[in-house]
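INFO batch 0412 | record 1 of 1 | parsing
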Amino acid sequence: MSVVVRFSLRLAACMLVVLACWLLPTAARAQGQQRVVQFTGIVATGDSLLGVPGATVFVPKAGRGTATNAYGYFSLPVLAGDSIIIRSLGYRNQYVVIPPDYPRQSYSVIVQLREDVTVLPEVRIFPYATEKAFKEAFLALRLPKERGSSSAENLNQDILRRIFNNAPVTSMGNYRQTMQMQQLEQQRRMGMGPSQYSNNPLLNPFSWLQLIKQVKDGEFKKKEGVDY
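INFO prediction complete | emitting tokens
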């Protein structure tokens, strides 16, 4: 066998060994490890497509998850083949499965939740062990008379007057009084509110103007044919 043929066979064998070494880790990685996929989407209500805030997106196999924001958006890294549960209070659970052979790096969905209306049974609470004992205690109850009772004492005029005279003014009372005083002062400045000038006609210039006008018009003259 010639030298050229031997060299060609050795070169081909080396290339096969290199190719096998390069393909074996890739195949092992494809068989032993799953692809990481970025799972994103919006969780909305089925009737209005409004985002559901606070909905949980959970991967039971991995034991981790996330929650939607105020607009119902979420983003979570998962593995190809994972099964995700999306749930929220008052809605039915929804399930999303990532295909095992999904080739892309991102997976986006819009999940529409359906309302789950649950009617709870009626619960009646009594202060006694049984309803019969409660009825017996209620029928045996004796209410106090009006005279001498605590309600009558609280409506005593002397007590009410003492509370009225000694009770401090609250913050709301001070605020109302201040607002009333400011409004009254504003009315006085505009001439519409009561003041020492408006209450005393001798000090009110508008009263003097009216008096002078009445004198000029002769309203104080004795009219003919009229007896006073």
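INFO post-check: The beta strands are 36-45, 56-59, 64-67, 73-79, 83-87, 94-97, 106-113.
INFO record closed
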